[in-house]
What does this fold into?
Amino acid sequence: MPYITENEKVQMALGHTPSTVGQLTYAITRECNAFVSTRGAIRYATIAWVMGALICAALEFYRRVAVPHEDRKIEENGDVYD
It folds into this structure.
């Protein structure tokens, strides 16, 4: 995981939107850790819930952002299967 500077951590704590991949990774990790800390002891089920949420978020991002982008690029540049 990329570690960000103390200044970046302060900015993130103040609610700034991540502007680098390191900051984004930091923010996601912090949210996951905060969720885990509300569950008490670390258990397999909690880890599985977090991993499942991350996978679902990745799939949703792919469906909503990546697929339309790829479809536009196919229209612009042609399909690999042509």
